[in-house]
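Lab notebook, bench 4. The sequencing result for the construct came back, and we need a structural model before the next group meeting so we can plan mutations. Quick request posted to the team channel:

Model the 3D structure of this chain.
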Amino acid sequence: MKSTLASLLFVAALTYTLTGCSVSPQPPRTANYKLPTTLAVTPGDTAEVAAATEAEAARINYRYRLTVLHSYYTQTGNMDKAGWAQREMENLDHAQTFQWSGIPEITPPVGESLANADEHLLVEYVLGARTAYLSAMRNLLAFYRNKSGDTYKAQRISNVLDRFDPIYTYKYFLEAEMPPATNRPVQVIPAADKMYDQAVKLHKQGKGLVPLLGTSYPKEREALLLLLDMVNKYPQSTKAALAAFYIGEIYKEYFNENIRAVAWYKRAVQWDPNLTMPARFQAAVVADYRLYNKAEAIELYRQVIQHEQFNASNVQWAHNRIRDLTGS
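Done. Here's the predicted structure in token form:
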């Protein structure tokens, strides 16, 4: 009996290891299954050298701009945003698994003074550098796809773009990532309804049959990006508040984006104060147990008691946590 239980636990653990975390696409390998650490341009091919150099220069500049922004947030004590910049750097570093060979050496600037630096300007530099990097990489991919005999290089560049996760890119001002709180979603928009239904279906499929086991992160990522696209294209849709709730859910459950999750839960009830989804409760729990923001958690739990009577267990939990957090 013990052996059977141990075997089941092992299988469950293995399944979770394989499917219970977000795994990037594997890089293409050689015929002997080795992973080359360099990618060489064709000697004498000036067009390829130029395209590869442009892409690598854009990557180095993008990383440099992220480094500067990270330093700014660290120096000013904004550790939440410093964490975002760090995550975006790690995302960029993780995407490319090789070094270029045969292109001119490219070095980042030596650095710049952050005295009297303007946050908005530093963020604009990052956003511009990110756009330039992705554009250069897509141009390089098109170059290789149009060039006969370079299917392997096309696969390598395509893999970099696939491994670069759009979830871990930021605008660094939450208000810039979502329609305003004053938005009033009152229009029935068939195109928005279709996007919402497709995204929720993907989200439910991505959960897997058993919690934590069999999670499909590609489906959750696709659902999230579709919902974000929907609310930004159709902010007036009557499904916008529900979409905002599910955006919060996916950020919280699958991508550890807790600050973003709380912001989207709040936006859901700002857009629809009568929403019959536990948006306030979920925001309170994240603020309480993940962000350790006692004041915000208490305020959100109070809102649960006032506005989310449709879930008695959540209301009771809110009462208990307020008592625990306030000592009264």
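The radius of gyration is 23 Å.
Will bring this to the meeting.
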